[in-house]
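During the no-cost extension, the postdoctoral fellow (Dr. R.K.) reprocessed legacy sequence entries with the updated structure-token encoder. One reprocessed record is reproduced below for audit purposes.
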Amino acid sequence: MKKLIKYFSLAVAVFLATALVISLFYIRFVYQALVIDNEKNFSPLAVRLIDKLTHRQPVPTIVPKLEETIQILEGWTSRDIGQYFERQGKWPSEEFLKVAGFPQVDYRRNKELPALPALPDWSDKFIFLADKPKYYGLEGYLFPDTYRIYASSTVADVIAKMLENFDNKLTDKMRSDIKKQGESIYNIITMASIIEKEAPIDYQTGDNRDARIISGIFWNRLEIGQGLQSDATLSYIFGDNNIQHSSRELEVDSPYNTYKYRGLPPGPICNPGILAIEAAIYPLATDYYYFLTTPGKNEVIYAHTYEEHKKNKAQYLN
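Re-encoded structure tokens follow.
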């Protein structure tokens, strides 16, 4: 008899448990059909009441970050980029330059320029900046390209994006070839920035032949101790786009004046694109020592001697 009662009790427990599971399932089904599937038809008050009775947490609203496109052109200076962002309504130009570094400023003289903030050091994150003097800004390394950025990005966020792009574009082979030539990345980028301003480069077709010839001319001049005599460096000083400068301007006392001082200028004079960088690394050997570009940079006229160059200037520029 006791065994019978035990089995009966067990059977009742199983039956009740099964009935409970079926009931819960049915209730859930009815709740899904009557409430959840029709919730959009309920008033906000009814929805809040359901949430309260069921202890349901409201589903958080996920708002995607707004993005926008920026375009940095080959040959722009840091100041050009700052002014671009100001025109776009992103940041004042000065705010950008406080992080990127002011052009032509030697930050070792910061004691004489107390208004300047300390220059951020990015070399710990980007190894290609290791040979860049820490007392100059990022001119030359703000890689020109089209970028997608968050609307909420800071100046530092955007600069980091440009430096990451530079890091990706400067390949291991290019770095290895620079090292084999006994050059530094900094010198190459400085030369590339002059080439970018002096040579016609077609970034649509990838044509940089003239840039590579001009690169060879500049490297030849450095090798024999001749001044680079680049009007692009004077334009960097004066903030103009003149292909020629006056005799008075040629005498301006600036370390960026390659008419007055031999060798490379202290640093890049713009932010060169990849074709100008390639031209600086891989110059074409010729026996030219002089060149000029016609107005509009449509054609390059080369010369072997200074006398020949003077005749070209009289014919094409005067």
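Residues 292 and 301 are 5 Å apart (CA to CA). The chain has three domains: 2-53, 63-169, 171-318. The remaining legacy entries will be reprocessed before the final report is submitted.
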